[in-house]
Automatic annotation (TrEMBL):
The gene is bamE. The lineage of its organism: Bacteria, Pseudomonadati, Pseudomonadota, Gammaproteobacteria, Oceanospirillales. Part of the outer membrane protein assembly complex, which is involved in assembly and insertion of beta-barrel proteins into the outer membrane. Belongs to the BamE family. HAMAP family: OM_assembly_BamE. This is Outer membrane protein assembly factor BamE. Residues 136-152 have a biased composition (Polar residues). Residues 100-152 are annotated as: Disordered. PANTHER family: OUTER MEMBRANE PROTEIN ASSEMBLY FACTOR BAME. It is a lipid-anchor. Pfam families: BamE (PF04355). Its main location: membrane. Part of the Bam complex. It is found in: Cell outer membrane. Residues 33-102 form the Outer membrane protein assembly factor BamE domain.
Length: 152
């Protein structure tokens, strides 16, 4: 009976301990969609053409399939150890293709927590990887005594 109690206690303890992990799993932020900032939206003005809007905002993430007069720019940032931030800008065009209405959802003025990569990263296709390396000066410096102007 005492042996059975020890076995049950040990198996319950192992089950409880195996469910608790002190070592965390690496997570990263996942940005999706069109990056939308307040600076971009502030450049939009009613009456702009679709080409002008595309120049400022880029191509929309969503175009209504049955109504090409509405464009949706959606940005979603799933923070690794936090909540989800979502921004949405809906642009409506009149029948002539001019911007008529701008609707915003989310806090566009808040800066996004993007960190710049310090490493070089993968090379772009068709580019020599050696071109991505920082250039070093290959010329030898001229000593100050030799930099005087020649005498005539």
């Amino acid at each position: 009976m005492q042996k059975l109690t020890r076995i049950i206690t040990l198996s319950v303890a192992l089950t409880v301990v195996s469910g608790c992990s002190y070592v965390g799993v690496y997570k990263r932020d996942i940005p999706q969609g069109n990056l939308v900032t307040q600076e971009m939206v502030s450049q939009l003005q009613p009456g702009m053409t679709q080409e002008q809007v595309t120049y400022v905002m880029g191509r929309p993430l969503l175009e209504a399939p049955f109504d090409s007069s509405q464009w949706d720019y959606v940005f979603r940032l799933d923070k690794a150890y936090g909540d989800v931030e979502q921004r949405r800008v809906t642009l409506t065009f009149d029948p002539r293709g001019r911007l008529a209405n701008i609707e915003q959802e989310g806090d566009l003025s808040k800066a996004l927590p993007f960190e710049a990569e310090s490493s070089i990263g993968p090379a772009t296709e068709g580019v020599d990887p050696m071109d991505a390396l920082p250039e070093e000066s290959t010329q030898t410096p001229i000593p100050p005594s030799a930099q005087t102007a020649p005498r005539t």
